[in-house]
Amino acid sequence: MAFPVLVLALMLQTAVFSRINLLYGSADIVLVILAAYALQERVTTSWQWALVGGVLVAFVSGLPWFVPLAGYLLIVGLARLLQRRVWQAPLLAMFAVSFIGTLMMHFLSIFSLRLMGDPLPVGESFSLITLPSILLNLLLAIPVYAGMRDLAGWLYPAAVEA
Amino acid sequence: MIVIALLAIGVVALALGGYLTSLSNFANQTLVDAQTWVSTRYLAVVDFLTVPRDVASLRQKNAELEAEVARLQTQVIELQQQVTETQILSALVDFARASPENTYKAATVIGRDPSPFLRYVIINIGSNDGIRRGMPVVTDQGLVGRVDAVTADAARVQLITDPASAVNVSLQNSNTEAMLVGSITGDLSLDMISQDVTVQPGDVVLTSGLGGGYPPNILIGQVISVRKLDYELFQQATIQPIVNYDQLQFVLVITNFKSVETAPLVPTTSP
To answer: Which residues are B123's β-sheet partners?
Structure first.
């Protein structure tokens, strides 16, 4: 199930969300989907989803290949950690993962691009790209969380007690 | 019985004699008025009973017409889009005809890089169409960038506005050369302009062809401001690009240009 969902998400990302800019930032629908999926209680395949998402984005993006892969794995790790800690407030966990996950992903991107020789100014990148992107990801968090909860409920139906 | 017959005969006789005319007129008028009232009320009742059927049919007709209007509006939008696309493609064809020394492949921009730190676009032609890494990409207006990665049916193009992009350019009016660099905001600026050169706002910026990355004399934009500080080695200038990189729909890939890989020629420091 990971492949069709994430391919569709990546198509939406490149064709739509990358063109909707707030200042110079844009939403990352793949990141939000992975965070929302990993926060579902019964889900057991979130690491595989992160791998598939990372490989797909690495294939399309001009970022160094390890950035999306490592970034999405870190985000899923964070989501699994928070899911066990704040399981009674899933939306709070979703907002926290979206916020921290976007920060992590962007810092990883800036660091690796600078390492590769791109002259990215850190302060300007943070204020013009990262902060608006966080806001857009937080806006996407609730609807995506609802969708992924339904998907997880469909993939992992709750056991009916006799 | 006899009395009734006599009364009837009397009334007939009076009527024949014309003595009952006013009375009969009054009676006729009353009957006509009554008939008119009854008829009007009947028609009102009929209208009242049949109107709901008319409203239903009118609503159905209205819905049909609204659907027709929506369909026609969609058609108009599609046709307007086709006209716009045709105009862009026509401009691209004119541009290609005007530069017969180059061979072009037209492509549609189908996406942008998922990372907001990079300024790349994805086009819908790849190695199956003869696209190779390093080929320059232009529109009828000017330079767009160059092919950075290729798959069988798609390619990724690095725009000249990308922070990692560097293009050797020449300033037409000043007859000097400089380096064009992108930024995270998509703004273009010129660097490495010698302090001895006078650069004016409005100077046209073209590719110089130096370095072998791009063919020479492709239009990029014009200078809008110059920053010259005595204590710096070079002047800087801000460029207004001629291409709107946020609205790219169609581009042309120059397929007969082979970029030169200059990296092996750059001397490295020996240990």
So the answer is: B109, B155
CB B112 to CB A19 under 8 A? yes
B182 at interface of A, judged by CB pairs closer than 8 A: no
Report the alpha-carbon distance of residue A81 to residue A40 in Å, rounded. Answer: 12
B158 and B254, same structural domain? yes
Enumerate the residues of chain B whose CB falls inside 8 A of the CB of residue A57: 114
Per-residue pLDDT of chain B (271 residues; tens, 9 = 90+): 888 888 888 888 888 888 888 887 888 888 888 888 988 888 888 877 777 667 778 888 999 999 999 999 999 999 998 998 888 888 888 888 777 788 999 999 999 999 999 999 999 999 999 999 999 999 989 999 999 999 999 999 999 999 999 999 999 887 889 999 999 999 999 999 988 889 999 999 999 988 888 999 899 999 999 998 888 889 999 999 999 999 899 999 999 987 777 667 766 665 5
Sign of CA dihedral B159, B163, B165, B168: positive
B63 and B176 in a single domain? The answer is no
Give this complex's ipTM: 0.92
Statement to judge: residues B199 and B112 lie in one domain? yes
Three-point CA angle B242, B148, B250, nearest 5°: 45
Structural domain contains residue B245:
yes
